[in-house]
Amino acid sequence: MSDKRIDEATNTETMGHEWDGIEELNTPLPRWWLYTFYACIAFAVGYAVVYPSIPLIHEGTHGSFGWTSRGEYAAEQKAEAAQRAPMLAALAKTPIEDLPKNPDLMRQAVAGGRAAFKVNCVQCHGAGAAGSVGYPNLNDDDWLWGGSLTDIQQTLTHGIRYPGDDQTRTSLMPSFGHDKILTPAQVQDAASYVRSLSGLEPKGAAAQRGADIFAVNCVACHGPDGKGGRPFGAPNLTDRIWLYGGSREQVVGSITNAHAGVMPAWGQRLDPVTIKMLAAYVHSLGGGEAFATPAPVAK
Amino acid sequence: MVSLNPQGQPKRKQRPLPSALKPKPQNGLYEKKQPIFPRKIDGRFRRLKWGIMAACLAVYYLTPWLRWNRGPYAPDQAVLIDLAHRRFYMFSIEIWPQEFYFVAGLLIMAGIGLFLVTSAVGRAWCGYACPQTVWTDLFQHIDRWFDGDRNAQIRLSNAPWTANKLARRLAKWSIYLLVSVATGGAWIFYFADAPTLFHQLFTGTAPAIATSTIAVLAATTLWLGGFMREQVCVYMCPWPRIQSAMLDEKSLIVTYKDWRGEPRGKLGGKASGGDCIDCNLCAAVCPTGIDIRDGAQIGCITCALCIDACDGVMAKTGRPRGLIDYATLEDSDKERAGAPPTPHAKLIWHARTLIYLGLWSAIGCALLFALGTREHLAISVAKDRNPPFMLMSDGAIRNAYLVKWRNMEDRPRPMRLTLNGIPGATMWSEEMGKAQASRQLTRTIPADQTEPLRIYVVAPAGTAQQPLGFILTATDTQGGSVHYDTRFDAPEGGQ
What we know:
heterodimer, A: Cytochrome Bc1 Complex, Chain D, domain 2, Cytochrome Bc1 Complex, Chain D, domain 2, three-stranded antiparallel sheet, 10 helices, 4 strands, B: alpha+beta, Immunoglobulin-like, 3 domains, five-stranded antiparallel sheet, four-stranded antiparallel sheet, 16 helices, 15 strands
């Protein structure tokens, strides 16, 4: 088969094959290229030995050093935790009312809270913390239980109407219609009055009758002017924010069958530092309030 | 277009080769690397090469050590790629990451610059300025310095491995290593303050990334410059392949003027008749080990050392210089027909060169213009989209924005942010209370910094969705103002 000859035009040896007058020139690959190929094979073998790579029947080979991607992830997590440790320690030491005095720590707390919020809170309050009907919007300036850092921390730790926590925020509005405390007509009148407080309805005859009903049944919690009461988590009825909706049907519904929203006592599930960070984050959303009284001196 | 086959002979020159050419030795399917021992030569192109080599090495090694005063807030290194702080400093120019198009523009200019050079003077990049060429040249000089010139090198290469040879080789390779480490070492100075890093390197406190970069670059320099050399040009580098597609009959290539040289033969010998005395000096000086008399080929980096060699021989034999010379194929055809050689300066200027030059300068001017007119003040606004707006207890509507105040000067600047639109709206930042809300905020932005600030804008109840802008004004004597137009969201019907 070998019919090697020197091709005249190129002065190169041919491979000795010929198909229909077409011949192949021998243009040899550099030898180092071949050695590079061998080196790659050697590297691949070494790699297969050092790293877990060969699948066996029940599990794969473990590699010389027992490397795993999970182990690497755990190590990264550990390094991350070590990096965050000083910040968390400082946060644990700082009472929440002193946080605003340390803007740097506050910024870190808000960032940590943002991450914790995404894991624990968005299910009810939404990714933008804007809530929905029955789930309070945390961005606005209306707070059922108070909007200072300490108030928010307290609410987060002990929850709202949460069984099993004796300090949980609690209050209960009677179901005035359902429990027959008020007649349906009285409920309608009370709704007219409540809606007139924020200007949703004119103060007509129904509202006048409602005012009397309100004075007897509602002022204990919502106050004589309807501005609510934070000790009972009673909403302010004079503003434009309605947790359960402000339409006539929705207000009538709320009076007939009272709502009683529940939030878990996060103190049972999260560590105090995470709760502190969450409080800082919620406070930072734009509606946070200053402290009503001078911050107590830490002892 | 001249297409070259792997052996390098141009296909369009299919005339019979000189009979003196012997077939290439065959090595089966894999070819052993042929050692190359280029002979020392002097001449006009060698001196040009010396000059360019000195300039390239000087620029490479000295640039990081140049200082440039940028005041107290910025580094004083003239050329610095500050990856940690995401800044690129080049003398009076400072590039921010969002201005990376300047760097992209420079890369485009470098690309077109290669086309321009190729169009004007062929593979001059390969022959003179390519780092592979410069460092190979450097290593070949080290070879000569240690082992003597070509013949001595061949003798030593063929000699058995005695203790003496081993010692000489080890000494030479350790100099290779030293050059390689210095090459890698110079590179990292572009990425950190050179004197500090230099000190750190010698006290062992340099960051691991610096030492590992030196190690990688030293290894590649040693391997590619010390041992692979012309193999890089012939087998690894894509550029010669690209260039063989770019060269045409108007491209300057190193040409053996066979119509003048053939038939070649020893001076006074029987076959003599052409100017070529077959002294093989042109092949002996070639750093890539080719014989230019075989015609244009991919291994020819057009370093022109064979021109120097041949010119010397022509002078000694009393014949005119330029038996081997830069020439275009077009010009070669004319000369073969009896016309005198065209001066090189005339060959450089043709339409394509001018088009590339125009394109290259246009991009350069555009970049310079953009650089000269850019603002050193910038604002960017990201509006909160979840929730898009917020109803407050008094019915007012609030939107939130993340406003970035950017000061690109090398000193702190006082700035003022003003609301543009919605007359009744006010704003306040996360740092202050709602009580201090107003139409404008002031703040001093540190030198060379971007400061993000969350801004709340509150508009009275009933405000409809509408455009809203922010204006950022520098309130120092230099002044300047930029604005950003965004949107104020509100519930439909203002409710």
